[in-house]
Specification:
Blueprint lengths: L1 E7 L11 H13 L6 E6 L9 E4 L7 H10 L7 E6 L7 H12 L5 E6 L2 E9 L17 E4 L25
Parallel strand pairs: 1-2, 1-4, 2-3, 5-7
Antiparallel strand pairs: 4-6, 5-6
Length: about 170
Amino acid sequence: MIVAVVLAAGASTRFGSPKQAVLLDPVLGQVRASTSIDDVLVVLGAHDVETNANTVRCPEWERGPGASLRCGLAALGEDVEAAVVVLGDGPDLDPRAIDRVVGAWREGGGDRVAATYEDVRLHPVLLDRSAWGTVPDEGLRGLPAELVPCDDLKSPGDVDFADESEGWPPPNEE
């Protein structure tokens, strides 16, 4: 079983309000559009946010994204082989990036596999269960990973300020 762990625990101080309330649902929609994910878990911390996904609250969210990720990993069942880590403020995530990272892992890509966009390592990042104990407070960025090029896909984004969230959620297309 592969579970997406969506990190949405931050305080959103630069955004000015809980950005999770605006961006989480679009991110979850993209994650669920992946053909490789069996379940989704959202890690919350600073703010309570309504969502239709399973959630876990991380009391140590202020320690950094690694602390939030460890909370999420600890909440997963024994049947979970790997977690795909996704940021809750990356609404442009392409589900195909998730599928590529999972595919590379299944083909023997190692215990950490990360998407790259024009040679920049971003999300999603897959973490094999064997590597769950290696997550530092600052997160996975400093740890080595097998890199999977996603240059033909749009970068997931990283919304920090309210004016960067214009267009999210996108209007309903009918």
